[in-house]
Amino acid sequence: MRQPYLLLLILCVAPVRFSLTDPIDNIAGFIRQGNIHELSALFAPNVEIALLGEENVYSKVQAELILDKFFTQNKPKSVKMLHRINSNPNYLFGVLIVDTDKGMFRIACTLKQVDGSIKLIEMRIETEIVK
User: Fold this and answer.
1) pLDDT by residue (tens digit) across 24-64?
2) Structure pTM?
3) Listed residue (108, 103, 111) closest to 127, CA to CA
4) Given the DSSP bridges, would you call strands 76-88 and 54-59 parallel, antiparallel or unpaired?
5) Would you say residue 80 lies in a domain?
6) Is residue 11 domain-resident?
C-alpha cells in the first residue's frame, strides 16, 4: 500500500527537483554558447563590470552591449568551473575559466538576492595567466 504513494510522491517531486538549476551553471552555459542576450536576463538593474582592468557600473542594457562586444571578439570554445560558493542562498559566487579563440580568461561572477530573485551584480573578466 505504501509503494503507490511513494511512487506518486517521487513523480510529483522529481520534475521540481530537476527543473531547478544553479544560476552559476546557467551563466557558464550562456557564456559557452555565446548567448549574452540570455545571460542579460540574469543581470541586476545595474551591473558592475571589470573588463581587462577597466571597471565601471553599467545599466542592464549597457552591460549586455559591452559583454556582447567582448564575446563577439573573443568567441568561447570551452568553459570550466574553477570555483563556486553557493552555501548562502542570498549570495552566490563563481569563477570560470573561459577558453576563447583569442586566449584564456578568468571570469568571476557575483550574484545576490535582488527583489526576490538571484541577479548578477558583478562580473570581472581578466586574462588568465597560464603557468
Assistant:
1) 999 999 999 999 999 999 999 999 999 998 999 999 999 99
2) 0.80
3) 103
4) unpaired
5) yes
6) no
